[in-house]
Amino acid sequence: DGGITQSPKYLFRKEGQNVTLSCEQNLNHDAMYWYRQDPGQGLRLIYYSQIVNDFQKGDIAEGYSVSREKKESFPLTVTSAQKNPTAFYLCASSIWEGNEQFFGPGTRLTVL
Amino acid sequence: SQQGEEDPQALSIQEGENATMNCSYKTSINNLQWYRQNSGRGLVHLILIRSNEREKHSGRLRVTLDTSKKSSSLLITASRAADTASYFCATDERGDTGANSKLTFGKGITLSVRP
Predict the structure, then answer these.
(1) CA distances from B80 to A53, B10, B12, B71, B105 (A)
(2) Do B100 and A40 touch (CB under 8 A)?
(3) What's the rounded Cα separation, in Å, for the pair B67 and B27?
(4) Which of A42, A97, A106 comes nearest B102 by C-beta?
(5) Alpha carbon distance A90, A88 (integer Å)
(6) Cβ–Cβ < 8 Å for A101, A92
């Protein structure tokens, strides 16, 4: 089955800890994206990558980091520098930028 | 920054009625897309309309685009309880250099369809 997966579904973190969210796709898409969604809000772009070994900051990149070593994988690290990390995180991919995006099921991160 | 703004923020209708949702945006776009999100889930792409298109259909969905007014509407005909979800419009803006296109999402519309 082709698709995009995220793990874990729920994640709890203590303040001051870094945590990495996984995103994998087997759709052979070049572009991948990370969004953050807060209650009652739309999606805000954190980072995006259009090709392996390259990525760009989105609108709210501070406190986050990413890597794109493989086409299939785009992990997101939420660092201790992110002041308010509790949110729903969504990963997406598309054939190329501007085209329809396919979303994973999301990871809900809670900071205790 | 948020490009698309949906209207209304919430909509409650009876099963069988039509649901109309609107989206306005501010800058020139290449295309506009509508997505659906069930509670606690990822988004699902519904339909994409390009800047040179005025209307598009997909099953019970009808999307219009008016680039002169910088607005779009999504019509769901003969709604069903299963249509209950949040609906987002997203605009594809291309930068001045023509590169690094990305989608900008609105805050979404919550649609409730009563059985």
Answers:
(1) 45, 16, 12, 26, 25
(2) no
(3) 10
(4) A97
(5) 7
(6) yes
